[in-house]
Specification:
alpha/beta; globular; Collagenase (Catalytic Domain); 5 helices; four-stranded mixed beta sheet; 16% strand
Length: 154
Amino acid sequence: MPTIVTRRLRKGPVLAEKTVRALGDRMLVALRLEDAELSILLVDDRQIQELNRIHREKDKPTDVLAFPLDEEPTEGVPRLLGDVVISLPTALRQARSRKRTLFPEVRFLLAHGVMHLLGFDHGTPEEKREMDALTRKLVRDVSPRPRPSRKKTR
């Protein structure tokens, strides 16, 4: 279940590649796609704007893009899901506006991108409800569970 993470920005928010890789691996396990391969690209706003312009004809930065591979899975060969591209500067701005740190924002964006790789979309209100619910469930499934407190009792 390899998750491949590539960082293509020199400056900007810091989020360790190994942290993002572990998150991707946990998502694959939660989705029972342990044998699949996921590619994650961390970029800046300029790079994601270029991809958004080329592939979606929207000449502006965005937070996340997903590029699914349309190949049928082959027996005995890892399933190649595709690429999720995340703009770390945009993710950081959104995290700050939501009064949270960068990691939970990236976790949500990655879950959203993975849902796109699996064929979900949000073009209609019904599709959006379904995709949002699946995204939230995936985020919950990979989030650390609160530990029970160990208060001393007398």
